[in-house]
Amino acid sequence: MAYRIDDSCINCGACEPECPVGVISEGDDIYVVDEEGCIDCGACANVCPVDAPKEV
């Protein structure tokens, strides 16, 4: 499994520095996860104030 950031993202950037494998980056409107490199650790979900990262 991997995480994906949904449209509820408020573009705060809290998730990006928490990713231990560096697969979160700022997209056009929201942050995005490179799902292929995601290790399903949940660190991004643990810090997100709006619960935007979801398991896929």
TrEMBL record:
Any single Pfam family the record assigns to this protein: Fer4_7
UniProt keyword terms in alphabetical order: 4Fe-4S, Electron transport, Iron, Iron-sulfur, Metal-binding, Repeat, Transport
SUPFAM superfamilies xref list: 4Fe-4S ferredoxins (SSF54862)
Annotated ranges, domain 4Fe-4S ferredoxin-type: 1-28, 29-56
Alphabetized InterPro entries for the sequence: 4Fe4S_Fe-S-bd (IPR017896), 4Fe4S_Fe_S_CS (IPR017900), 7Fe_ferredoxin (IPR000813), PSI_iron-sulfur_center (IPR050157)
One of the record's GO cellular component terms: cytoplasm
Cofactors that this protein relies on: [4Fe-4S] cluster
Stored Gene3D superfamilies: 3.30.70.20
Superkingdom in the source lineage: Bacteria
GO molecular function: 4 iron, 4 sulfur cluster binding; electron transfer activity; metal ion binding
Function: Ferredoxins are iron-sulfur proteins that transfer electrons in a wide variety of metabolic reactions.
Name of protein: Ferredoxin
Organism: Isachenkonia alkalipeptolytica
Lineage of origin: Bacteria, Bacillati, Bacillota, Clostridia, Eubacteriales
